[in-house]
Amino acid sequence: MENNQLNEGLENSSPKSLYDKITGSMLLKIFVIFFLTIILLIPMALIGDLISERKQRETQVSTEIARKWGLEQVVSTPVIAVPYDAVHETIKPTTDGKQTTERIVVKEWAFLLPENSAITAEVQPEPLKRGIFQAIVYNAKVTVKGNFKPFDLTKLDVPATDLKWNEAKMVFGIQDTKGLSANPNVQWNGQGFPMDKYFQELDLFTNNLTTNLNLTGNEDLNKPFQITMDLKGSKSLNFLPLAKQTTIHASGNWANPSFNGNFLPEDREVNETFRANWSIPDFNRKLAQQWTGEPVALYNFLGVDLASEDVQMTDFPEPKVVGSAESSDKLTSNDYDMVQINFLPNVNNYQKATRVTKYGALVIALTFISLIFMEIIKKQRVHLIQYVLIGFAMVLFYALLLAISEHIGFNLAYLLAAVATILLIATFVRAITKDGKSAWIFGAILALFYTFIFVLLQLRDYSLIVGTVGLFIILAVLMRLSTKINWYQFEK
């Protein structure tokens, strides 16, 4: 009897191991759980990489679909080009030490932009699927009409007699000719003209369509024009306003258009369909009304989403000088100088999944804090291994959300993933504590956290204020609960 009591006393007085101190001391346990939360950021980062990988795969599939259907289209107003022979003199040394003047005749052009132009586009976007991925493509009925005025010969540095009026051409550009369903219908002064895409001397646009006007003189330019085409494209439809006064009217059956570029609509109406109007004067144009010189591309189009925060002006190449005089109003344009209508998908699963993962550390931390409070208040110990398992279950929620959202959409996937995770953790807590009431209370707390995050996702403009107020309320509740706990007992 005495020996047994002596053995028990020795066991009780024996020093505890480091593991026993960590698992037995609540304060040490809190610090360990804090570091566990930080460690769980590693698999959260891997989930973020997985989302980026799937988003990249979606982009690849969308690009493949667009390449076969039609790329992002750029529709410009036409340009008239009249050729002339320019003589360039160069001085070269001769073998006897003297100099000689060599004259070289080069074909150059006089370019003229429209006086006014009206662009009308009726767009029918639709999602085109391949497997679980899709791309937004469209069919558009585009009409470009307007009129030119003659050259101001007093400001043109070429005599009118040198201009070859019978070789004058009207040049019209689009981004991807594969998107043309039929040959464009071109009219000049009410008369139809065929368009030629094989004329390579005038490389003003990405793809050039030219027509011979057979003019007799400068006054023949004072005529109206009209170009009509059926155009296929994907993701966005862009317009390059080159006229002295350009008006654009676009309409379509898409509920989620994004209007970008340097010019926002003067008026718009968006519901299940959209309608928007622009009126753009030449003050916002980089090009002069007329210029002379060799042909230079009038724009560089990268096809970027101008609403994206990732787009920087440094992404665009340096503008080239257009024409013979190096002036600020004779530079090439880029995406920012256009009117851009982006046809966004109704739901961007990967964008929302990325936003959800940004709240991952917060949800994990709040869950662990709630579990610690439950452990202290209920006086029911939860092992560190069980904290680890609960943490991994919460990380797995994001992988589950990503996988399901690719098939049934984000909102329903969020509901299913959240319910599955809550049930898994709640039943696990019930098995640990042997207390159904505690488990369901903890499950309700988790449901509150996931609902809070889902609401923040829906409130783009008000997410900061709602999120801050929500965290303030959570902190107030935790502070209130902490006053009911004798924290000094853990020092004994």
From TrEMBL:
GO cellular component, one term: plasma membrane
Domain of life: Bacteria
Transmembrane annotation, as ranges: 26-47, 359-377, 384-404, 410-432, 439-457, 463-482
Pfam families: CreD
Matching PANTHER family: INNER MEMBRANE PROTEIN CRED (PTHR30092:SF0)
Name of this protein: Inner membrane protein
Keywords: Membrane, Transmembrane, Transmembrane helix
NCBIfam families the UniProt entry points to: PRK11715.1-1
